[in-house]
Amino acid sequence: MEITLAESLCGFKRIIQTLDQRKLLISNPPGTVIGNETYRSVANEGMPMRGSDGRVKGQLIIIFLVTFPQNEYTGENLKVIGDILPPRPDYGYCDDGQVLKSELYDPKSSSRRRRQQASQGETVECASQ
């Protein structure tokens, strides 16, 4: 179930439809944070248990995927958010003062590129030390 960052932090109520067409209200109270890829279960709302003629059901497992905003925050918005959240830890600095910038990385496209290179006879090898 996809939820927004605001829902993750501030709570939510959602209705989901089960395979047998019933509707269930799934909620999380404000202050109970749900992290990305968190698993939660609802007892007796899952698949029917074998040999029970559908009368006994297992757990309904819900995987929560938190969607984050796309670079929408600047200036005053960031200050407000920073004031609300717990302080960021200070990890200090490297001795040489070098600052490196990270870039977005897509493992799917990277593995696809490696497969294409391998199919074309290109290989990447690590140098031995």
UniProtKB/TrEMBL annotation:
Does the record carry Secreted as a key word? no
Q: Where is this region: Disordered?
A: 104-129
- Keywords assigned: Metal-binding, Repeat, Zinc, Zinc-finger
Q: Which InterPro entries match?
A: DNJA1/2-like, HSP40/DnaJ_pept-bd
Which SUPFAM superfamilies would you find in this protein's record?
HSP40/DnaJ peptide-binding domain (SSF49493)
A GO biological process of this protein is: protein folding
Q: Which domain of life is it from?
A: Eukaryota
> GO MF annotations for this entry?
Hsp70 protein binding; unfolded protein binding; zinc ion binding
Listed transmembrane segments: none
Protein name (database record): DnaJ homolog subfamily A member 4-like
